[in-house]
Write a structure and sequence with these properties.
By secondary structure, this protein is α/β, with parallel strands linked by helices. It has 17 helices and 13 strands. It has helices at residues 9-14, 38-46, 60-73, 86-91, 94-98, 105-108, 114-126, 145-154, 168-176, 188-196, 218-229, 243-252, 261-264, 273-281, 304-312, 321-335, 359-381, and strands spanning 20-22, 50-54, 78-83, 102-104, 135-137, 159-164, 180-185, 201-205, 211-212, 234-237, 256-259, 287-290, 298-301. The strands form 3 sheets. Strands 1-2-3-6-7-8-10-11 form an 8-stranded parallel barrel, surrounded by 7 helices. α9 links the parallel β6 and β7. α7 packs parallel to α16 (321-335) and α12 (243-252) packs across α17. It is globular, with a radius of gyration of 20 Å. The protein starts with 8 loop residues before the first helix and ends with a helix. Bound molecules: flavin mononucleotide. Flavin mononucleotide binds at residues 23-26, 28, 35, 54, 56, 81, 83, 163, 184, 205, 208-211, 237-240, 258-261, 264, 344-347, 349.
Length: 385
C-alpha cells in the first residue's frame, strides 16, 4: 500500500513524516531496564515518527553512549527524555557532592526513615524474600540533571524532553545549537509555565496515562492546555493507543501525539516479557495511580504490592527517595519470583492492547486508521455544515 499522508506543523518543526512521537519512558524502578531503549527509538524514527530515548535511570556516561548508539543506527531525528527534579536542579547535581560512586541498594535503604526501613524488613521476613542485589548509580541522570543536559547539548540531540520539572534553565543553550525543547505537563497551569519558559513544545498528559500522571483527564486537559500554552503548540498524551486517539487529538487542536504504553508493549519496547504480558491481560480498569513507586503519583498495572502498601499506614517519601524504598522491595520480590506483586508502569489504554508487535507496525496502523477517520469516515458519518 502507498504511504499515507498525515502531516501537521510538528512534521515541519522536527523534520519528520508523521506527527507521532514515542514517549521517553525510563525504567519504573532502580534495576529495571528503560521502557524506551535505543531499539525503540530507532524503529519509530525510521518508520517516520520520532522516537524518544527514556534517559532516566542511565548514568550520565551511559546516556552519552546510548545517544551515540542511536546516531550510529539512524540518521533520522530523535529525542532524549530526562527527569529534571526542581529541588536537584536548584541545589546542584549529586555527582558534584559525592563523586558519583555506586552503592548497593541494601545499604542505601539504611538511610531511609526508621519506619520505612523497618517496614521493608518486615515485608522481607513475612514473604521470606532474599536480599536485594541492585545497585544505586549515584550519577544517574535524574540526580545529575545539569551534567546530563550538558551531554544532550554537546551531542546536539534534535529534541530534548523534560519529563518532570521545567526545562527553562537549559532552553537558551539548547536553542543556540539548534535543538528543540519539549516539556510535559499534567495540568493547564504547568502547560502555561513550560510555554512561558521558552520551550518549543508542550505535552499535555491526561490522568489515564502510564507512569507519572496528574489529576486531569485527557479530554478535559488537552483543550485547556492548548489555551494555556498558546502560541506554543501542544502534543496530546494519555490514553492514545490507536488511530482513533490520534484523530481525536488532532481534531482538538493538538499538533501531534506522544504515546507511551502502546509503544512499551511493542517488540522493541523495554518492558520485560512478563510486564508486556501484564499489559496484554489488563482491562481498562486494571491500573492504579499511587504514590507508592516514586513519591509522586504514577500509574501502573494493579498488583498485590498496592495492597501491601495501602495496609502499611506509611506516608510516601519525597521523590526520588521513595524510588529507593520501592525499588528495594520490588527487587526482592522479583528475585523471589513473586510475580503477583510486580507490574509495570502502564496506562488505562492497556485494555485496548491485544498484541505485541513491531513498533513500525504500530505506527503504520495508527497512521492508517487516523487517515481513514479524518479523510473518509468523518465525512461519511457526520453531517456538518
Ligand atoms: C513504563 C513507563 C515509563 C515512563 N517513564 C517516563 C519517563 O521517564 N519520563 C517521562 O517523561 N515520562 C515517562 N512516562 C510517561 C510517558 O512519557 C507518557 O507521557 C505516557 O505513557 C502517556 O500515556 P499513555 O501511556 O497512555 O500513552 C512513562 C510511562 C511508562 C508507561
Amino acid at each position: 500500500m502507498a504511504r499515507r499522508k498525515l502531516r501537521t506543523r510538528l512534521c515541519d518543526m522536527l523534520g519528520i513524516e508523521y506527527p507521532i512521537i514515542s514517549a521517553g519512558m525510563g525504567p519504573s524502578l532502580i534495576g529495571e531496564t528503560t521502557g524506551a531503549p535505543v531499539d525503540l527509538v530507532v524503529a519509530v524514527s525510521e518508520a517516520g515518527g520520532l522516537g524518544v530515548l527514556g534517559g532516566a535511570g542511565y548514568s550520565v556516561d551511559q546516556l552519552r553512549e546510548q545517544i551515540r548508539e542511536i546516531k550510529k543506527l539512524t540518521g533520522k531525528p530523535f529525542g532524549v527524555d530526562l527527569l529534571l527534579p526542581e529541588a536537584i536542579v536548584s541545589s546542584g547535581d549529586h555527582t558534584a557532592r559525592d563523586g558519583g560512586k555506586k552503592v548497593m541498594l541494601r545499604d542505601a535503604i539504611k538511610s531511609l526513615p526508621e519506619s520505612h526501613y523497618q517496614w521493608i524488613m518486615k515485608v522481607k521476613q513475612d514473604l521470606m524474600l532474599p536480599d536485594t542485589e541492585a545497585e544505586v548509580t549515584r550519577n544517574a541522570t535524574t540526580t545529575s540533571p545539569h551534567a546530563s543536559v550538558k551531554v544532550c547539548i554537546e551531542e546536539r540531540v534534535p529534541l530534548f524532553c523534560a519529563g518532570l520539572g521545567n526545562p527553562g534553565f537549559m532552553v537558551k543553550d539548547a536553542h543556540a545549537v539548534g535543538m528543540k525543547v519539549l516539556g510535559i505537563s499534567g495540568n493547564s497551569k504547568n502547560a502555561g509555565r513550560i510555554a512561558a519558559s521558552g520551550a518549543d513544545l508542550v505535552v499535555a498528559q491526561g490522568h489515564e496515562g502510564g507512569g507519572h500522571t496528574g489529576r486531569v483527564g485527557s479530554m478535559a486537559l488537552w483543550p485547556q492546555a492548548i489555551d494555556a500554552a498558546a502560541p506554543v503548540p501542544v502534543l496530546a498524551a494519555g490514553g492514545i493507543g490507536d488511530g482513533r486517539g490520534v484523530a481525536a487529538a488532532l481534531a482538538m487542536g493538538c499538533i501531534g501525539v506522544w504515546v507511551g504504553t502502546r509503544f512499551l508493549a511493542s517488540n522493541e519496547g523495554g518492558a520485560l516479557p512478563i510486564q508486556k504480558d501484564a499489559i496484554l491481560k489488563a482491562t481498562d480498569e486494571d491500573t492504579r495511580r499511587s504514590y507508592l513507586y516514586t513519591g509522586k503519583t504514577s500509574r501502573t498495572i494493579y498488583n498485590s504490592f498496592h495492597d501491601l502498601w495501602e495496609s502499611s499506614g506509611l506516608e510516601p517519601l519525597p521523590f526520588p527517595v521513595q524510588v529507593i524504598f520501592a525499588s528495594a522491595i520490588v527487587d526482592m520480590l522479583n528475585r523471589a519470583e513473586k510475580t503477583e506483586y510486580v507490574a509495570p508502569f502502564a496506562g488505562q489504554v492497556s485494555g485496548l492492547i491485544k498484541e505485541i508487535k513491531p513498533a513500525a507496525d504500530i505506527l503504520e496502523d495508527m497512521v492508517e486508521e487516523a487517515v481513514d477517520i479524518l479523510a473518509r469516515r468523518l465525512r461519511e458519518d457526520v453531517v456538518a455544515g
